[in-house]
Design a protein that fits this description.
Dihydrodipicolinate Reductase, domain 2; binds NADP nicotinamide-adenine-dinucleotide phosphate; six-stranded parallel beta sheet; Alpha-Beta Plaits; alpha/beta; Rossmann fold
């Protein structure tokens, strides 16, 4: 052990992640000191309720009602933000610490997705470290891999399962034939989904994480608001069953890739071949895959959330600060980041799974197929599944049959226009289901 004074850490937020982190500091002090050559002690904490029992001994730590005051305190050398929230006290306290030249570590993806470039710039200006490994895919070291582990390799495509709640729901829908609402209820009872699950199931959480990865992968500014985002709430058992019969699973993927039209950023339910590695990522697990020119494909999988897994990533960032590792937070100096060059979703090319409630009248199927032909959309298969009753309120009691079309590679724009024409023809009822297919 070097003869250095202990590193004094202030932690704002003593919830799921903060309490796990403090517990690791209290219980593993000897191992930490041995491994990193310097003692690390938590000297100050901040949370909302002072009286709450958090299951860890906080008696040796100074209490701050105001996280900004903690960030500015002379008794801390490094500030850890684990409160959450894209603005407010989280942003104010991170700024305050960086302005004073104190390294900052956070797990706050919402904040980085919105203010990451500004904060990275502030960290650069003050020559201070800023770590956010825990913000994307919890315990998976994807940020470090992108910033430091790829050498000269250039990423062409990044995709992944980055929300455990959605993956848990889709896995149970697939394996147990349960419908979406029942799965969601179970997930809430088991603590895998929030009381208000909107953020997760509508894809926004995945979008925040993907926006951060896009910046690191393609050397561009973070553009979380310029993304196609679609959640999993419309996934029906009919989709899962037909997809499965055709050899696919359905996953909520975040995908970013370079295309001739710019960079695509999209979050949506996706048919993935059952034989692909990503299809095997089940339950609350997360995985991120990188396709690069030098390293063909690199897949990192593991726990994407949970107090201990996330705190492990926070500690990894703290150790980097202790060691003095200094890399630009977004991989490149902010001045070198390109503006985000958005590819239009209409220009996306891929295979599509299209499920329609076709009216049970003569000629309906032929008319639908003919519209596809007119748009030069090649169909890989057409499946009629009258046995699959879709719970769509718009069909009311009208006799319909479930028809699924699988297209070959085609333009999103053509698919949308053709579906609009089919709807206008009056041969279908309710909103068609369109799910993109990725073949890995
Ligand atoms: N949980 C995970 O698995 C996970 C995974 C990856 C990333 N993250 C990220 O980690 C961060 C923390 O998540 P979490 O799950 O640990 O949240 P949490 O359990 O809700 O804990 C939040 C903590 O912040 C405190 N807090 C909130 N507002 C505050 C304020 N204005 N001033 C002082 N303290 C305040 C709360 O105080 P009280 O306890 O007194 O209410 C609580 O201790 C979030 O950014 C989240 O996105 C979490």
């Amino acid at each position: 052990m070097k003869n250095e004074a202990p590193l004094r850490v202030g932690i704002a937020g003593v919830g799921t992640v903060g309490a796990s982190l403090i517990s690791m500091f209290l219980n593993d002090q000897e191992r930490m000191t041995q491994r990193f050559g310097r003692q690390i002690v938590v000297t100050g904490i901040s949370a909302r309720s002072r009286s709450k029992d958090r299951g860890v001994d906080l008696s040796e730590m100074a209490w701050f009602d105001d996280p900004v005051a903690l960030a500015k305190s002379d008794n801390i050398d490094l500030f850890v933000e684990l409160m959450g929230g894209e603005d407010g006290p989280a942003l104010a306290s991170i700024r305050a610490a960086l302005e004073l030249g104190k390294p900052v570590v956070t797990a706050n993806k919402a904040l980085i997705a919105k203010h990451g470039v500004e904060i990275a710039h502030l960290a650069e200006q003050t020559n201070t470290q800023f770590g956010f490994e825990a913000a994307v895919a919890g315990g998976i070291p994807i940020i470090k891999t992108l910033r430091e582990g790829l050498g000269l390799a250039q990423v062409q495509r990044v995709y992944g399962i980055m929300n455990g709640t959605c993956n848990y729901i889709l896995t149970r829908m697939t394996n147990e034939g349960i419908n979406f609402q029942d799965c969601l209820k179970d997930a809430q009872e088991l603590g895998y989904a929030e009381a208000d699950p909107t953020f997760d199931i509508e894809g926004f959480d995945t979008a925040h994480k993907l926006a951060i990865l896009t910046s690191l992968c393609f050397g561009c500014k973070i553009a979380a608001d310029q993304m196609y985002v679609e959640g999993i709430t419309r996934i029906d058992q009919a989709d899962i069953k037909v997809a499965s019969d055709l050899g696919f699973d359905i996953k909520l993927l975040g995908v970013a890739q370079r295309t001739p039209d710019g960079i695509e950023q999209r979050v949506h339910p996706t048919l993935v071949p059952k034989t692909s590695t990503i299809a095997g990522i089940d339950g609350v697990l997360n995985a991120v895959s990188l396709e690069t020119d030098h390293v063909e494909e690199l897949l990192l999988a593991g726990p994407g959330a949970g107090g201990d897994a996330t705190a492990a990533s926070v500690i990894s960032d703290i150790f980097d600060c202790v060691r003095g590792t200094h890399v630009p937070p977004l991989g490149l100096p902010v001045a070198e980041l390109e503006p985000y060059d958005k590819a239009r979703m209409r220009e996306h090319e891929g295979g599509y799974f299209i499920r329609l409630n076709a009216r049970d009248i003569p000629g309906a199927l032929a008319a639908i197929a003919s519209r596809m032909g007119e748009s030069e959309i090649s169909l890989e298969s057409v499946i009629q599944r009258p046995d699959l009753v879709v719970n769509d309120p718009e069909t009311k009691s009208e006799a319909t049959r479930t028809v699924v079309l699988i297209t070959q590679k085609t333009l999103e724009q053509s698919v949308r226009q053709t579906i609009d024409r089919i709807a206008a023809d009056g041969f279908i009822v309710g909103k068609p289901q369109v799910i993109r297919i990725e073949r890995f």
